[in-house]
Prior knowledge:
The structure holds 2 protein chains of 2 kinds.
Chain A: H1 15-33, H2 42-50, H3 54-60, E1 66-70, H4 75-88, E2 93-95, H5 103-113, E3 124-128, H6 134-141, E4 145-148, H7 156-159, H8 162-174, E5 181-185, H9 189-194, E6 201-207, E7 236-242, E8 245-249, E9 262-270, E10 274-281, E11 298-302, H10 307-322, H11 327-335, E12 345-349, E13 352-356, H12 362-373, E14 383-386, E15 415-418, H13 422-431, E16 439-441, H14 446-455, E17 462-467, H15 469-481
Parallel strand pairs in A: 1-3, 1-4, 2-3, 4-5, 5-6, 6-9, 13-17, 14-15, 14-17, 15-16
Antiparallel strand pairs in A: 7-8, 9-10, 10-11, 12-13
Chain B: E1 2-8, H1 19-30, E2 35-41, E3 53-56, H2 61-71, H3 74-84, E4 88-92, H4 94-98, E5 102-104, E6 111-112, E7 119-135, E8 143-155, E9 163-167, E10 177-178, E11 180-182, E12 185-188, H5 199-214, H6 225-240
Parallel strand pairs in B: 1-2, 1-3, 3-4, 4-12, 5-7
Antiparallel strand pairs in B: 5-6, 7-8, 7-9, 9-10, 11-12
Helix pairs in contact in B: 1-5
Amino acid sequence: MTTAPMSRLAARPDLRLGAALAAAKLTSVGIRRLGRGGGTAAPGFVADRIDPALLGKLAARLDRGAVVVAGTNGKTTVSRMLADVLEADGSRVVHNRSGSNLVRGVAAAFADRASLAGDPRGDVGVIETDEAAFPEIVRRVAPRLVLLNNLFRDQLDRYGELNAIAGHWRGALAALPPEATVVVNADDPTLAAVTEGIAARRVTFGLDNIDARYRLATLPHAADAATCRRCGHDLAYDALYVSHLGAWRCPNCGAARPTLDVVGRDVDLRGVEALALTVAPGPGAVPRGGDGSAGGGVRLEVGVPGLYNAYNALATAAAAASLGVPDATVAGALGAFQAPFGRIERVAFRGRTLTLALVKNPTGFNEVLRMLTAADGTLTVPTLLAINDLAADGRDVSWLWDVDFELLADGDVPLATAGLRGADMANRLKYAGVATDRIRPLPADPRAALEAFVATVPEGATAYVLPTYTALLELRRALADLGAVETFWRQ
Amino acid sequence: MDLTISWLYGTKMNIYGDRGNVLALAQRARWRGIAVRTVEVGLGEPLPPESDVFFFGGGQDQEQVAVSRDLQGAKGDALKQAIADGAGMLAVCGGYQLLGQEYRPHDAAPLPGIGLFDLVTEAGAERFIGNVVVETDLPFGELVGFENHSGLTHLGPTATPLGRVRVGRGNNGQDGTEGAVLGNAIGCYLHGALLPKNPALADWLLLAGLRRRHGDVALPPLDDTAELAAHATAVDRAVRTR
């Protein structure tokens, strides 16, 4: 294990850092006194003004170093999984658990946890980062390990085009020193390209030997990295799993998915409840030796659904192995894992069970629909789609046209729409071939929509609620007001 | 009656859900009993001679370069000829730029367009991102969409703007114009996707394509409740977030 450059005990008093920490803590207390939940970045803003180096200083005092987790989808889930695994391994973990993942949110989480004397009060950091903030956070934190899960088309009004993000990531990754490790999803051709030839040690993971019924026959419309990064030719896939993730190769120049160091295989998807997969050293793995774990691999049983979560569990296991965590610890922690806010959760409300799943970009939406329709080929319970267009949702709702709602055309359950752009959602369903008498536009107001929707669901039955980010916040607030669930920032 | 929609470069030039335009054209024809064929025209592939309506979306930089090259010569000439014959065309963003004279990036050689529209686009320093409402004097009236571009498009003396920007930045953020129109061809910066919530424009393009091949046909009206609700909501959001 590497040692951090400065141990906690050797740290000299740092007045600027102390002032920044004090200010951040006061701000945080103030916000909670005012009863304002969720606004978790303000203390980081205050701290950043006083000592912009706060994050780097605190991260440098973590004995096991910091891990930065990035990816368009799954970064909240993966960073929570990894934090749970590291805690189960006996580490004290500093983690921006609230999901506030810009530079200031991360700084706030570190400041909140640290002592006034600048002790980070942890052994290891797990930092979820926003795609746009990734290069800056990597630069400030100097992570021991970077975990790259995927790169999909997301809110283009905010992040810009995929190629631009990939270029920024490439710059940050190329600057990492040889002693750093980059654990990367090699099924993603873009991520394979941006990590090629970097000085840091690269550990690749990917899926293999996946049942044909879990594979995709063709690239979804939302995929946009299916051309060869070396020669520009269209890629071919020996197996396609999620969006443009799979066993890819270029028929023109011979570029192909790198040899896998860690393989996820024998995935078993159990409806909307759970999944299992085996994680084993791949053909490219360096034998770990001694602990007897190499070879057969470890079977993971996780209480989250869908193939996209199999990737999340695999990413976590690959990073944990690189950090020296024993397989049994990984399996135990993931077996007890609880899905984070809104990713998939069940809420009891007025005698009905609501299954909530956040939808935030085309690939995420496609995968949620795939998971919910896997058993019957279409939706069989009433579903509410709540689409907002605030900054955190993406102000451009064009992305709805890249989601394959055609999957919902068969069937007879009503599909309700709500949110600031519920009308766009209803129109999208119409053009997907959903019969217009199944499409039920509800009021834009979340509480009114929720009450109207629930009234259409038979007592004792289940219904699905698929909101964008701010619609989820509003629905959770409405549910909380009506006594159904707690607010999330206290978690 | 039959109709062929030619989707130029298909998913290679589709980064903002613009395929919704192709869906809208196809569905609105199908709902009227018209047999629709949608053809994706890729790099190096000739235009189907029976193309009635074209859609041409925007791509990332790397794709724009390949597409610009592909349109030089016979293919671009065939496209201009089809439009001169009265075929319908909707080009959005990158596709719109490549129907002009040229695109001038910051730090690379200019990308030639096909010169259908008398306009030039230069890379700008600012990115225009937001909802857009455009007033037009054409039969389809007001349009609503979402712009996301840094190219500044300047219309030449023989170009006609599609309309005037009521909300948003439009062609260049300066002269209040948005898009260009020539015969039955429209170029603009409007994503959204545009046609599903501007159904009168979708029908205008369909009618252009149908009349070119089938003579003086009419399109029976459809129930556009969902489309008009999406339009009204988008205009409302545009005005509130301007």
